[in-house]
Amino acid sequence: MPRTFPPVSLIGVPTDIGAGHRGARMGPDALRIAGLGEALLARGVDVVDTGNVQGPANPWIEPVHGYRHLDEVVAWNRALMDATAAELAKGRLPIMLGGDHCLAIGSITAIARHCRQQGKRLRVLWLDAHSDFNTSAVTPSGNIHGMPVACLCGIGPDELTRLGGEAPAITPAEVRQIGIRSVDPEEKKLIKDHAVDVYDMRYIDEVGMKRTMETALEGLDADTHLHVSFDVDFLDPSIAPGVGTTVPGGPNYREAQLVMEMIADTGRMGSLDIVELNPVLDRRNRTAKLTVDLVESLFGKSTLMRD
């Protein structure tokens, strides 16, 4: 029988406040124009577009005390945290349309708090070319889109680590990172010290994507909320050029489809981030259209009916 999915709420977050390039603020509209809502409706999913979260403009200034645009990043993430919590309370599956990846601090903080309230375990799948486990001491840029996993794990400024009132929001043991292929030298040590579970591209090359996903998804059960944080630069830039931080050697189209289909097979996905889509760098909305195609697979699209 076809799988049923909970009702979905699209939450646009039009900002590039944590990024090193302008343009991700247009990501939500690019996904809408590419037909994300219509594609999910066609799959029988109940979809409501809640519109866009509002926040401060990007001042585009240099870092202060190691963090770029910290006050503005906090404001956007707090607004998203509240919007995400509101949709979860209604029993809906929130899909955050970013925007840059710093926004995962707000979405995942809300989701982690919801899981604690519901007595559920949390599993975060971080699909990305980057580990995003930087700190202000490690990265000279100060761009906070390189820090969300560290902040969520309690490493960073109090304004972000305690966004939801508790720190850490999550632990490294709740995270599985897939597709990683760009990690700063000192960030590697932080990842090792905190035992972050990383399946980099070498691992994927050696064992294959199927085995990688089986391992990353192992242990999910009815008491697990699965959150997928999908950075579009997870994909190889040959198929997804519309991102600000392209890294060669990522998953190809078929590997990416397998990732999404195996996530769908679990039936456990309860929330989703889509981030770092930058239409300024795209070609005729190609990357947005591909992203919509992959999200359809997260919601059960496959070549054949499978048990």
Automatic annotation (TrEMBL):
Entries under InterPro entries matching the protein: Arginase, Ureohydrolase, Ureohydrolase_dom_sf, Ureohydrolase_Mn_BS
Cofactor field: Mn(2+)
Pathway: Nitrogen metabolism; urea cycle; L-ornithine and urea from L-arginine: step 1/1
Entry note: cofactor: Binds 2 manganese ions per subunit.
Recorded GO MF terms: arginase activity; manganese ion binding
Record-level GO BP terms: arginine metabolic process; urea cycle
GO cellular component: cytoplasm
Catalytic activity: L-arginine + H2O = urea + L-ornithine
Entry EC no(s): 3.5.3.1
Record flagged with keyword Hydrolase: yes
Family annotation (PANTHER family): ARGINASE
Protein name: Arginase
Species: Pseudoxanthomonas indica
